[in-house]
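User: Structure please.
Assistant: Input sequence and predicted structure:
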Amino acid sequence: MNHTMRILIGYDGSDCAEAALDDLQRAGLPPKAEALVLSVAEVWLPPPASSANDIVDQTREAQILGDREPVYAKASALVKEAFEQADRGSKRVQTNFPGWKVTADAAYGSPAWELVARADRWKPDLAVVGSHGQSVWDRLVLGSVAQRVVTEASCSVRVARGRVEEPGVPVRLVVGLDGSPGSHGAIRAIAERSWLPGSEARVIVADDPRIPTFIGNLIPPVAAAIEESNLDDQRWIEGALSSSVSILNNAGMTVSTEIREGDPKRVLVEVAEEWGADCIFVGSTGFSNRLERFVLGSVSAAVVARAHCSVEVVRKPK
């Protein structure tokens, strides 16, 4: 039985959220899918009944004395507004994707954590969030909803930065290849999508060859071992690129490759800017748990912070 793709969309009604909805039309997504549009009211309320609808009803009906009444009235209004916002977003998604089954829902609390919690429960294939366009420094130091979802979610995440394009313009994708299961998953994820005719992918290997130090050059066995390791790396690169080109060509894409020396966190962003890419695809580093991803960071999180185009972090579900 064919799997129906599930897509969780975080939506707050902002310009970047609207751009994220536009970006979905250039993401190669299937004509049939199940989408959930979630809006989160940034308020805190006591533990509710079973649904957010009950929260609204209870806060309206509660007899609250003193100065707490205005607080609860404002909170309930914000939750109701989140429902209305999600409904507006879901209608727009439905218009853009008439073959999808689209529903709307709302929650309250921290937007990042609520999106992650809903992803844990609903188990989507892809979570979509917009980027609020902070400076790189703000995104790296202070974090953002997008960064937290990338770090915490157990599914693939698309951080959408929509660009104004004429309808029917082919898509340009950059994909990083490093030999990990995640990077091979990114290649497969692209190949499984449906792209506009003429769409292109550029597969990038960021190569950082180990160069013998001065002392290593004085000790022939050390220099020889490093040289042999570099030759092994070169053979792997050639094989991996050939396999990736074959997979993407079979999916109907025009493919080019590039090996560029440097840190992949920098190289992938540079190539995307130089080439005018619509999206960067990267595989998620296989840290064993969320704490490792949060403390150690990853190439994917750094690319999300630095890129000016959309970034899709491919993470295989466990």
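Residues 166 and 232 are 44 Å apart (CA to CA).
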